[in-house]
Amino acid sequence: MPGAAAKAVLWDIGNVIVRWNPRTLYQAYFEEPAECDRFLSHVCTMEWHVAHDLGVTFADNRAPLIERFPHYADAIHAWETRWWDMFSGAIPETEAAIEALHAAGVPQFGVTNMSHETFPGTIAMSPAFERLRDYVVSAHVGLMKPDPAFYALACERFGVAPQDVLFFDDSAANIESALAFGFDAHHFTDPAAVRPALEARGLL
Fold first, then answer.
1. Are 17 and 112 spatial neighbours (Cβ–Cβ below 8 Å)?
2. Tens digits of residue pLDDT in 75-112
3. Does the first or last residue of the chain, that is N or C, have fewer Cβ atoms within 10 Å of its Cβ?
4. In terms of pTM, does the model score above 0.90?
């Protein structure tokens, strides 16, 4: 049963407010689907990408990778130079929920694992981001979800208690750790479920 005491909403960004997937870029970049799969599973992997979210620059992170895979140098560079081609727009249901919460006076904040190099451009993608009062960005603080220390820092920064928070995230691991930390949390898998989740907690 969802909690009924939530007073503030914390939003993840990628695949909750805006859709992001490296495959959106690389399925167009590579002619062969198998080559795209091989590149994303063995070269520019999500494990490699974590360094960006912890503050390593694109330039520093790609240098050793290009040494290992020189034949993929252009594709590796594209992780930065065509970064914005990995996005496929904002999620309308989330945008509408953010606007409704803003109209209702509910405090909203953003918490994200993201590079400091891409954060400004990402929050320029939708007017909904202007409704969020503040953000904690992993690359700025050297911590990442699902580390409970990340959630603790967010609570301190935003001036909220864990039991007063409803958190939306698309990662099951992040949701599990957030629940253990004391947040109420909603695993974002279906945009149509966002407003009902807010209504069930009396936020809308």
1. no
2. 999 999 999 999 999 999 999 999 999 999 999 999 99
3. N
4. yes
